[in-house]
From TrEMBL:
Potassium channel domain span: 162-236
Organism: Devosia ginsengisoli
Organism classification: Bacteria, Pseudomonadati, Pseudomonadota, Alphaproteobacteria, Hyphomicrobiales
Keyword Ribonucleoprotein: no
One Pfam family cited in the UniProt record for this chain: Ion_trans_2
UniProt xrefs under InterPro entries: K_chnl_dom, K_chnl_volt-dep_EAG/ELK/ERG, VG_K_chnl
Protein name: Potassium channel family protein
Length: 275
């Protein structure tokens, strides 16, 4: 009798494990497959991500609104669900957790779950835009339309935007409405200072006071110039296409390349009309 009673229990456990495996397989297909249904799902996730990023940008202006906390916790729920789903869709969860974009997303989730405790770090939420560009879902529409050669300049623009908003949030959090920085009264003032510092225009009407303010300004100018140079290189440098060489695996080549410049292997790069 005891053996017969044990069989259904073991069978139920096997069915649960099989159901969990089916769930992971389904999520893996939704997040990584090229099937039409999966692409629609990925497009919907991308739209939601972009809406969340728009909220992060507008957060300094909405923080005093009555509905702010409700929106904040709703976005935290969406982000938590997305993180759990992406974790289940990965083949190695521990390895997935060690990736920098995932660590940043977990930190952003913490600022959403504890907005009053981590209010001074809330400006780092815009890093979600950077982590989003580290996923294939973001770039797949470009590759689908044969525009993958523009991935590098687009990434450079996004890096610059993320830097601008992170620095603006830092300046606003650290210096706005403080007695030692009377010229920075709001978020627009902080954004104005960041843009003038990054472009090294330096009108002088808004400055960061004290030694730490001067050091912060120096760091902003040096990093900003570097990002501008990187953006200029990405725009004006001859565009390359992503086409792995069958021989050596080199990923980028000139659009009209016939042979791989690394190993000399004959290439067959499709033109725009056949992509």
């Amino acid at each position: 009798m005891s053996k017969q009673q044990d069989k259904p229990v073991n069978g139920d456990k096997d069915e649960e494990l099989t159901g969990f495996a089916r769930l992971r397989s389904k999520l893996r297909l939704l997040y990584h497959s090229q099937a039409p249904g999966a692409q629609r799902f990925q497009a919907a996730v991308l739209v939601v991500d972009l809406a969340i990023i728009a909220f992060f940008i507008a957060t300094p202006l909405l923080r005093n609104d009555d509905s702010f906390l409700w929106i904040d916790y709703s976005i935290a729920t969406l982000l938590l669900a997305d993180l759990v789903a992406r974790a289940l869709a990965s083949t190695d969860i521990l390895r997935w957790l060690r990736q920098m974009p995932v660590i940043i997303d977990i930190f952003i989730l913490a600022t959403l779950l504890a907005p009053t405790w981590l209010v001074n770090l809330g400006f780092l939420r815009i890093m979600r835009l950077w982590t989003l560009t580290r996923t294939g879902t973001f770039w797949r529409p470009l590759r689908k339309r044969g525009l993958d050669r523009y991935q590098e300049p687009v990434q450079a623009v996004i890096n610059l935007l993320v830097f601008l908003f992170v620095v603006t949030g830092f300046v606003y959090t650290a210096f706005a409405n403080r007695g030692n920085a009377p010229s920075i009264e709001g978020y627009i003032d902080a954004l104005y200072f960041t843009v003038t510092a990054v472009t090294t225009t330096g009108f002088g009407d808004i400055v960061l006071p004290g030694t730490w303010g001067k050091l912060a300004s120096i760091a902003i100018m040096i990093t900003g110039i570097s990002l501008f140079v990187r953006l200029a290189q990405a725009i004006f440098r001859p565009a390359k296409v992503h086409f792995p060489c069958p021989q050596c695996g080199l990923q980028k080549h000139e659009p009209d390349a016939v042979h791989c410049k690394a190993c000399g292997h004959l290439l067959n790069i499709p033109d725009d009309g056949h992509r």
